[in-house]
Amino acid sequence: MTTNNFKVKVDDTFEFDFNDTTLSEIDAVATGKNSYHALDKSKSFHSEIIDQNFTDKEYTVRVNNTDFKVHIDNALDIAIKAMGFTIGATKNVNSIKAPMPGLILDVQVQVGDTVTQDTPLLILEAMKMENLLSSPRDGVIKSITAAVGDAVDKGQLLIEFE
């Protein structure tokens, strides 16, 4: 059985690690669509999800009338950060660089192509995994410096935008 791991950051200050076991030990019941009641060491907590941004995995949670900003990373997010990726990087990116050393398996765009955010650009094989690199923004491909079969180093320029 696979264990799911989560890293939870609250108000950019406190970090907590959770897994399937720790989550199953939480004494909580749903009291509404986005509200819960929990007990911890005989203390009662009323919580409600006030705001949610699924894309950035950020939530505003009200616990006993105090609001907290909560960010949740799953096991994949944690692994990606460990490999040097940054999630939710700025949208003013003018180039794509190799996030890790690897082998270019496929280039899915050409110079002059107009792309939108999340358009697949290329596939980089690293650590026996295929990693799809997508466009972080809308734009036009200015240059492609890597070709299928190229071995690339971390930080090597792969694609530039106009």
UniProtKB/TrEMBL annotation:
The keyword Nucleotide-binding does not apply. PROSITE patterns: BIOTIN (PS00188), BIOTINYL_LIPOYL (PS50968). The keyword S-adenosyl-L-methionine does not apply. Keywords: Biotin. It holds the Pfam family Biotin_lipoyl. Residues 84-162 form the Lipoyl-binding domain. PANTHER family: OXALOACETATE DECARBOXYLASE ALPHA CHAIN. This is Biotin-dependent enzyme.
